[in-house]
Amino acid sequence: MKYLKRPKNQFFKKVLQNLLNLQTGLFYIPSLLSYSLVLKYSYNNKTEKILECIGSVSSENILLGYTGFIFSFIYIILLITLGYFKEGFAYEIRHSAGRNNLEAKAFPISEIQGKLNTTLMVILYVFLSGNTYTFYLVLIGISQMYITWVYVWFLPFYSDFTNFAYACCEFEATCFIGFFAIGLGLDNATIVIVMSIIMQPLIVLIVIGSIEYRKSKILLEKINENNVRNFELMCRKKLLQFKPSLKVVKFISKYYLKYNENIVLVFLAQYYSSKLGKSKQALIHISRISYRGKGIFDNFQIYKCQKFLEKMNYFSSEGLKFKVFIKKLEKIKNSELKLFDSIISLSDSFLNGNGSLEYLKKTFYTTHFLIKTIKKLYTKSLEKFPESELLTEMYGSLLIMLGEVEKGKKFLNNSMFFHENNKKRHKLGSIFADKNDSIMLVSGNSQDFGRIQYISRNMCNLLSIIPEEATSYYLNNFVPLAFHKNHYKSIENFLMNHAEGKLFQNFPLQLCDSYGFLVECRLNIDSIGYDSSVEFIVGINIIQGINRECAMIKCNGDIIAHSRKLSEMLDINSIKIEEENIFGYFYNLDFEKVMIGEPVITETKEKHRKLLLFLQEKRIGSTNIYILYLIFDPIVLDAISAEPSLATQKQKLNWLLQLENNEQTENLSKQENSKLFMKFQTINSPLFIDNESHLLSNALQVVNPNLSKLILRSFCNLQIFIILSFLAVVVSNIIILVSVSDQVQHSIKLEALGILGRANSYIACLTYISRQLYISHAFNSSSIFTPNDAIYYNDKLLSLHDVFREKVNEWSYWSYSRIINEPLLPVYMNYSSPEISYSNLLDVISYTYENVNELLKGYSQKPLFFLIFNTFRLSIDHLQIAFSDLIDSERKALVELESLFLSLFFTGICIIGVFGSMVFIMNWHLHKNLKQMWDDLQSAVLKNSLNIRGSLNSRANKYYDTEDDIYPIEDIIVKQTVSFPHFWHYLSRLSLVVVFGLIIFFVSVFVFFAHAQDYMIGKVDFADAMLNRRVFVYQRNLFLIEMYADYNRFGFTDLYGFSPLFPSNIGYIYMANKMIILRRNAFKRSLQKVIRPEVWKEIFAEIEGEEGFLRYGLSDAVIEIKWECLFLAVNIRKCNLDCFNKINNELKTLMAYYDRTADTADRSSTLSLKSTYESLFYFIIFGLLSLFIIVACYILPYFQKEKNIVKCMQIKNQDITNTSKGNKKHDTTKHMSLTGYVNKSKIKESTKNIKSLLKPSTMHT
Question: What is the pLDDT of residue 1259?
């Protein structure tokens, strides 16, 4: 019984209990409020101020989207459920604990209502208080008033102080809500504080008065309605009193009989146990009801009370121990029957040839699993009931049947000496110690009162009952018909009021067998309660002493019932002579002497058989029973005839009957010798050992140790292969994931590409603005661009200076990264001379920043020279080359990554091919050995099939109360043999690992990585197109404005005498052609993949919120600028500087748009890449996790199970057959000599005991 075991360490239990108490108590409202806020604002999914909190608290940190909504909803349900069940289960119901536990109570409903009210208050506060605060106050005010009424009216706690405290707290909250409503209506908070302070004494007085008024309405004398809470209030005072009273018992019993409220029996049982000290009676009362059904909280209290009282009564009640013993015995028997069915199923599968290999394996494994389970059940049961002779014999014989002969014999021998020694010392008093005890369990439940629940084999024989039909009998079937009236009622009355003791204890009484014949015995009847059931345990000590018969008669001699051989003794042909007058069968009998209890020797009328008649009068309750004994033993007749004193004759006969009832006559010696003989026969019978000890072991253990070691080694190699295959798949996919992760993270950022592209675009923009401002200043014309525009982009360019310096070491994969720090860029430092020196990009940026500022101060030629001849020239030439090289480097890295993955894939294919060849060879070798093993098993089972059935039938007939064979024995007809295709079974499972891993690998490389690679290439192409477009449009327009300057003799050659740049017209055509190529690249498939719909719309459709030339998309805007530039280039001679205002205005707007949307465009190109990488990541993780689950939870356990099957088939004791054959002759001689000894001493002991009984009276006379 689990509840009898006290856990050694309850630390974890205490910690968990304290955490639950904190969560459902102190932290309940904060947790519920937090989850409700997450639920609300995650559903709205927008950042806003949390109105339910004090101060300006933003909802940004609790915006968790639909995930947060779902999880917070689940947590709220779990928290409410946890609080509900905690209040329903965790409370003290015992009235005896009312003075020590202030929160002890009879019902949890008040606390549950309070918890639900708190829950409603918090949730409504979050979801309703914002818009309908007045309605919220009214609603919670009404609910708070109801809770206050509940605590006042029902007074749930046993302690008056606790009732007052809770009621006062709830009424305080109700009043505060009212005060707050008044203050809210008057828009004055002072009134809330003042009224809350002033009204405190009045609140206390109102609560006290309300509680006292409620107490005055509680009447103990009347039960007016079917309300168990009111009833508990009526009898609470009596239940809490120190002095016990039976009136309380009667009052509760009366209420239960009238209203059938189960919980009141908990009060009754606790009262019996704590106040009256009758724990056994308490257990019987609480066991009258079941804890299964409706009312989960009441059922839990019933269950807790039952288990507590069962634990209290277990060590003092033999009846309760016996009930637990019977329950464990039934569990063992059921498990054994399952084992037998499994063995027969295995045998039939081999016989019929229709069982699949999987079914045979499952059945064989189940068989050995059941064997282990049964051994554990026996071991645990024997630990609790070592005195049970039946358990020890069943376990020992089972061990012998399973082939563990030496262990079984040793166990049986040790248990035999244990039982014999303790019986001699009278140490075994348990009613289940003797396997031959006559015991039955009788139901005491109202629905089947008197029905037989269990009956021992000896009791069945005594009462002439077929064991299979035993449970269809009732107790009245074994009571003479004349005493049926009020029989059950009298027993039930005893059960309800006096069951603390025993109904009968070694009481001499006659029962009727199933045919109505009397059986002399002594009764021990005890009542128990266990697991929602009340039962009687009836133990019988059989009286079979001297030669006699008996009859139960009326006072006039009419026979009510008689023993089986009475009619034969009276020389009557009829078997049953009930309702006949017994005195009419004797010759010249003075029946009056018989009726007054005098021994009378008389003769029968028919054959003049000499008999001694002796009448005993017994009183059971208010009923008198007359038992007439008819003794025909010659020794007794001679002894009584020789005794002149009537009183001495009565004394001798009563003494003789008393001794017989205590089992000190010849019958005891017969039984003890018979038991001893049966035990030796059980242990040493060579038939038992030879026929049963080897049947199951020979049929189920067929593999020699050498073959089993070889097979087990092969299984270990297979398991190692599986693990290596799994690790290969894991490692390869991790390599893929890490490689892709590094490249994806690099592609997401593309820092070098983005920073260099922005620097180049800022340079192109700055040089165009600078040249435009310079020409406007020289021609004294207004300009669309202002110095602030130049300053803005100049600062932007300078901000990249530090970025280049910090990131240069990370860009070592880019061959042109040396231009950042090393002097590789050719520059003209002297505008009056065409001499070239070399500088780096960082210095160029610094010089550009300085020269722009200097140009804006005076518009001199020197800073313009550096900006055009160096900065602009480098932008067109060297920086563009570096940018193109960077693009090529990114694409090359992607190509190398693809090559790496292909190499990994084909390497994995080769490894898998090698592993596949190895596993094929290993599997075939293993298949041959396993086929031999299973063929041997099939032969062994077919050979021993009939003997197995006979052995199982024999055990079932011996221990399971079955007369017929449960497994019919028929001739063996083998229809067909079973094939054992282990090779294909194992290959399919091994292939599962390989194929599944290959699928993961294939999909990772050719699906997800392929998509990721497309997106990475597309991102590079997108960056190439978008960044170059920004640069080319400014560079083309600079050559356009330079065409105007050349026409007006204000070009670079005119200013400085030379120009390292293209001629203006050639430069314009060159940049225009590059723009055409760039537009063609924008329609690449890779670029279209990476562009998200909203960006595609802005490029080729329309830009929302924009007017003018950007309205129809960026592409159309650039085309419009292109046509305007073409128009100006053709008509340059006819234009003045103002003709450039329109195009400059559009360029300025385009520059601002580019600057504003640069980050958005770059991010949009990374979203698809991120999504694909996340898909790859989750696919690999999920795939590897799935593969791990398959390997760890299916493949490896499957092969481990196969190994266990081989271990189970291994022969453990090779010399068992030789041992049993060598001992056969010795055991046969031993038990035969014992039989002869018992038979020879049988007659001598029969008369010896009778004479010894009569000696004391003879000496006395």
Answer: 36
Q: What is the mean pLDDT of residues 669-698?
A: 41
**764 contacts 875 by C-beta, under 8 angstroms:** yes
**Of 1243, 1237, 1248, which is closest to residue 676 (Cα–Cα)?**
1237
Q: CB within 8 A of 514, min separation 6: which ones?
A: 463, 464, 465, 473, 477, 478
**Position 1165 confidence tier, pLDDT thresholds 50, 70, 90:** low
Give CA–CA dist 1117/625, Å, rounded.
123
Q: Which parts of 1064-1195 fold into alpha helices (H)? A: 1064-1081, 1085-1090, 1093-1100, 1114-1130, 1141-1190
What per-residue confidence (pLDDT) applies to 366?
A: 87
Tell me the domain boundaries of the chain: 7-90, 107-221, 225-313, 317-424, 438-660
Q: Are strands 534-542 and 438-443 parallel, antiparallel or unpaired?
A: antiparallel
CA dihedral 389, 393, 399, 405 (to 10 degrees): 110
Task: Give dist(CA 884, CA 816) in Å, integer.
Answer: 10
Side chain identity at residue 901, one-letter code: F
Q: How far apart are CA 1160 and CA 1098, in angstroms?
A: 12
Quote the CA–CA distance of 391 and 328 in Å, as a whole number: 10
Distance CA 549, CA 1164 (A): 109
Residue 731: other Cβ atoms inside 10 A: 12
Bridge-based pairing of strands 548-553 and 534-542 is: unpaired
Give the tens place of pLDDT for each residue, 389-422: 888 888 888 888 887 888 888 888 887 777 776 6
Written as six digits, the tokens of 388 are 């049970």
Q: Who contacts 550 (Cβ-Cβ below 8 Å, separation ≥6)?
A: 510, 518, 520, 562, 563, 566, 627, 628, 629, 630
Mean pLDDT across 306-317: 89
Which CATH code of 3.40.5.10, 3.30.450.20, 3.90.600.10, 3.40.50.1820 fits the domain covering 438-660?
A: 3.30.450.20
In angstroms, what is the C-alpha Rg of the chain? Answer: 52
Report yes or no: 801 and 794 within 8 Å, Cβ to Cβ: no
Give the residue among 684, 681, 594 at the shortest CA–CA distance from 630: 594
In whole angstroms, give the CA distance from residue 1020 to residue 748.
10
Q: What pLDDT does residue 901 have?
A: 75
Tokens of 1227: 């055991």
Provide the 3-class DSSP secondary structure of residue 602: strand
CB-based contacts of 438: which residues, under 8 Å, 6+ apart? 456, 458, 459, 462, 521, 539, 540, 541, 542
Using 50, 70 and 90 to split pLDDT, how confident is the model at 986?
confident
- On the question of pLDDT at 962 being above 80, the answer is no
CA distance 550 to 614: 10
For residue 523, list its beta bridge partners.
507, 540
For the chain, give percent helix, strand, coil, nearest 5. Answer: 70, 5, 20
Q: What is the pLDDT of residues 753-781, one digit of tens each?
A: 778 888 888 888 888 888 888 888 888 88
Q: Which of 985, 1053, 921 is nearest to 1201 (CA)?
A: 985
Q: What is the mean pLDDT of residues 1236-1254?
A: 38
Query: Phi then psi for 1154, rounded to 5 degrees?
Result: -60, -45
Closest CA to 617 of 631, 605, 628, 608: 628
**pLDDT over 60 (residue 432):** no
Instruction: With beta carbons less than 8 A apart as the criterion, state whether 373 and 362 touch.
Output: no
CB contact at 8 A, 1039 and 1129: no
From residue 1244, alpha-carbon distances to 37, 266, 542, 1237, 1247 in Å are: 95, 60, 22, 12, 6
Mean pLDDT within 1009-1037: 75
Instruction: In whole angstroms, give the CA distance from residue 784 to residue 1140.
Output: 9
pLDDT at 689 over 60: no
Residue 1099 to residue 697: CA distance in whole angstroms:
84
